[in-house]
Amino acid sequence: MAPYPEPDPNLNQNPPPYHDWTVIPDTALLPPPPPLPEDYSPTNNASYDSAARAHEWCAAHPVYTPSRPSANLHALAARGEIALETPPRPLIARGFTLQPIPTSTDIISSSTPRNITTTTTSTSQSQPASTSWLIRTTPAQQDAIITSSLPLYFAATDNPLVGHAHSHDQQKPKTKTIYFEIVVRRIVNESSGVAIGFAAKPYPPWRLPGWHRASIGVHGDDGRRFVNDSWGGRDFVNAFQEGETIGVGMTFEPSPAVAASSIPPYSDGNGSGNGKGKGNTTNSPYTKGNGTGKDNSKGNGKGNGKGNGKGNSTNSPYTKVNTTAFITRQGRTDPRWSWPIDEERDVRDEGVDGLMGEADLYAAIGVFGGVEIEVRFGRDLRWTMDAGI
After folding, report:
1. Are 138 and 94 in contact (CB under 8 A)?
2. 354: left (phi over 0), alpha (psi -120 to 50) or beta
3. Which residue ranges have biased composition labelled Low complexity (predicted)?
């Protein structure tokens, strides 16, 4: 009888290892991934020509240096006694109306409303006591942006860190929040809409907020949010509806910002190509960023055109701070309706300079097509800062 063969030492005699699949974390418990940047809007998109002209305009018009307001101007802005400025006359379609909404305590008489198609708003005029404004447009209205006459955020006085460093107040620096609301009274059709946000000046007057340097915007036609986003924005909320009250705000925290992106936050470019166009930054020590816009015509990408090349960061004397943007609906907040300005960005995205506490920021309302909205700054807000975000 043949001897029993010796086992081959090269063979593994052990059974295959057992892997307990239950030790793998359940991804359902993880938070949802951040919304990805989109190339196009599912609703309205701008023409390439509009974006190309905006790129050139941004290159020729540097962002303003932050101003140091008088105590009176700062108090007016804090109370919401702020005028809105009409777009240039060539952008105004017949029937465009921009006028203050008087109250019983207003200085401006209700018997003398202004139709901005014939009267131009000027920042040199005395500030109205009214804190609410009516904007009405017709379906023929092209893309236009309406900005406040005064910043809601003054970098020289409102930056939580810089203002504290120059004061004798030994208390901890305070968070600064800016905010305003609109009431959507009417949206004529699917080719009409409104966008709300904030922007540094100057800004291309035929573009909507969020598409250019130092600006953010939430667009009511597709519900997407834009932060110096020259493409299709990021999914955010449902589209604005008639009868809704929508608010937009920014909160500046008393802590230095730490960059969340792996790319330089400040970049420039001259627009070309498809997507959303980008503008150029400035040599100002206080401002940075790029962007684009959108008009009422159809095209490729919401702003159409991507900038080429990256710029260099500037040395601003105003400290960058952690900044969060948010919206409210019907006076309510929701954790899903806010986002950090310096969030993770795609390599194609431009920076957030000018939005981190180092530049003056104005209220910005974009309109196209036929809409009717009420803009509220001070009184009659459905959400108040005391309510918290």
Report:
1. yes
2. left
3. 259-269, 279-289
